[in-house]
Structures
1.
Amino acid sequence: MASSYEKHKGNILVRLKRIEGQLRGIQRMVEEDKYCVDILTQLSSVIAASEKVGLIVLRDHIQGCVRDAVIRENGEASVQELIDVVERFLKS
Amino acid sequence: MASSYEKHKGNILVRLKRIEGQLRGIQRMVEEDKYCVDILTQLSSVIAASEKVGLIVLRDHIQGCVRDAVIRENGEASVQELIDVVERFLKS
Amino acid sequence: MASSYEKHKGNILVRLKRIEGQLRGIQRMVEEDKYCVDILTQLSSVIAASEKVGLIVLRDHIQGCVRDAVIRENGEASVQELIDVVERFLKS
Amino acid sequence: MASSYEKHKGNILVRLKRIEGQLRGIQRMVEEDKYCVDILTQLSSVIAASEKVGLIVLRDHIQGCVRDAVIRENGEASVQELIDVVERFLKS
């Protein structure tokens, strides 16, 4: 089965690579004893960027996997799983 | 001036390195068309781990920089900056 | 059209009534100059309880309205609306 | 001891009263079987408004109680409590 996010794969990978770069930057900042608030600002940016990627994957997941499951076989389990992942996301 | 998080520097760097590794893992999952929900779960974990690092830096910042500023010179600006960074964190 | 949350209506109303009571309690605490941290704790509790109600409504919405729209007429608009509401929820 | 939020008391009470009103409005919407997405939108608004009140109280708390504790007696316990409440807020 192709993943639901197939068409955004390039976009998602570019974003993840960028977040990885930000994280290496933060490590450098910590090694060089940079100011706490600047590190916190960078961490906020990592979190916001990770949530953004999550929303892209979530959108594709709902339009793909969840829609398919609903059409194919009612989708009870798929909807339950979706709610769980949204709840986990809300709490993180 | 030494950074407020000096004594947790090793701990913070280990955590950041681990998050960087998680992000590389997520990229691999996307490349291999892994299931959306598993990717979302990993992203939630990156976010929670980044928030945890943020809370460590925040704690040291308050006990270090903010405390010093308050004792030295009332700390009005430092407290304002702290509130801004907490607000940014809550909103990310 | 019956609402999707029909079967949880009683449960939802009880929860909302309880949150309303919590809010009245917080107002009383503020009027009586209660300690900031206790007020913040109560506000966290209001937020968590409101999110809980939101997740109940969301679940019913996906299993009801969204499912119906997907089966009846592909559901493109309904899925888009769902993603928007989840995004708004994640950002609040 | 006067509460740290003394000078914003009126503002805070007006906001809490308004949130209470929103909650009563949501209960009416549920009773009248209003559309799920409209209810979710109202709940997001309650959450955002509660967080806004929280940030006002938090700001006053840091500028008041925490600052005082730091000046008076180092403030170790007060800073710890602050971190805990921020963490609880982040998680809610």
2.
Amino acid sequence: MENKVEYLSSLRITPDGEKVEKDVVVREVPLTIFLNRQEIITLMCTPDDLEDLALGFLYSEGLIENKEEIDGITLGEEEGSIRIELKDKSPVNLEGLKKTSTSGCGKGGIFLGQEGKTKKVESKLKVSLFQVLSLVREMEKRSSLFRKTGGVHCAALAEKEKILIYREDVGRHNAVDKVIGNCFREGLTTSDKIIITSGRLSSDLSWKAGKAGIPVVVSRTAPTSLGARLAQISGITLIGFARGRRMNIYTHSWRISR
Amino acid sequence: MENKVEYLSSLRITPDGEKVEKDVVVREVPLTIFLNRQEIITLMCTPDDLEDLALGFLYSEGLIENKEEIDGITLGEEEGSIRIELKDKSPVNLEGLKKTSTSGCGKGGIFLGQEGKTKKVESKLKVSLFQVLSLVREMEKRSSLFRKTGGVHCAALAEKEKILIYREDVGRHNAVDKVIGNCFREGLTTSDKIIITSGRLSSDLSWKAGKAGIPVVVSRTAPTSLGARLAQISGITLIGFARGRRMNIYTHSWRISR
């Protein structure tokens, strides 16, 4: 936890007056990812689970496919870099990646105009309403960093009954990439899993879940138009506004039993 | 407004039962920006104020400096592209941009290791506590799209007494870029302005405000460590958790009079 936060002085003003206090804020640092010695990207992130983050990012971008390809991972934490070497040392094709550069909370490019090419998630998983809501509650209980700083997103991979992987990051996508990266590294089956995120369900989330073959995506907040469309095409059950005893199921509702 | 939202069917589940209803969700579409016919980036965004978005993005990235440089702007809304032509037709240097590629809600690269080179905001602006809180309330009143969909961020440029520019987008950075782009296009003075955002105060926000020369940045939510550090270095007053009658002032509190 200590690695994930910093303490800053702030002048705190309330109706009762003002005083200087120590505030806990989430750490944000740059991490530059190299693949076969090629510089791929610099992510602004919260410095823990950096191997998971790098692997999840590269996997979501289609730059790595399975862990057998990987020859070694070297984390240079001091200099904010991570180097991933593949067994195949040929130069990495970055044509796809360059177009995905993105600002804002949307993830651009990869699947644009390629909806037909989207991988369909093949899974017969069914989950009950009660299970989904329990998992959301469970994730919220775990989000202590968020409660402390108000500045991070969290994401979790769960099976029906419990959360298996839980990650936090200053970046919405990063939290999901950390989860997917860990899943990739552990070689977990994904077709029977559920991903839960604290963030909005935009197209990049549906893309990442589809790429990883995760059939159910849940958030306590809203989807975007393209997030829902991509989930529909990819065979993903997309659930928003999952709070208390409520939820809105946008796509493939047959997976949710009542 | 109609351009900014879509209506989707969702299966809405509540303690009282379930029914299929029309849900309003925020539109998310790709916009590819070309500068002098070079493809720069594809942003996932909410389709309004696209000229402001493109100009604000290019300005924040240091690819354009003033509106006199610009020869023409052509919006191809159908195909999701915007083409900006400069009077100077020489190829654009994208070396800096490539490193800024980013995932997640952090904006990478540009200023990394360049803290010494950060432009200092020169402004003697002072704003009262009351004015800051009024402006936050005013922005919240305007955020009707957010209230409808739960899926957008908003940003505003204000002078002491009132909001001058208000923009919304599915992307946190995009909302800010739309504000800065409009400011750029209108040729507004920035040293006496305040920027308010619904999103977290990460490094990219401090970077964008610094680049635009805006001395006060306010949010109802949290800063990150690097967001605060960059604001400190850039001479920006950074205010988080501005809600009701409270706020936390992280940097350069001398600008806020009580």
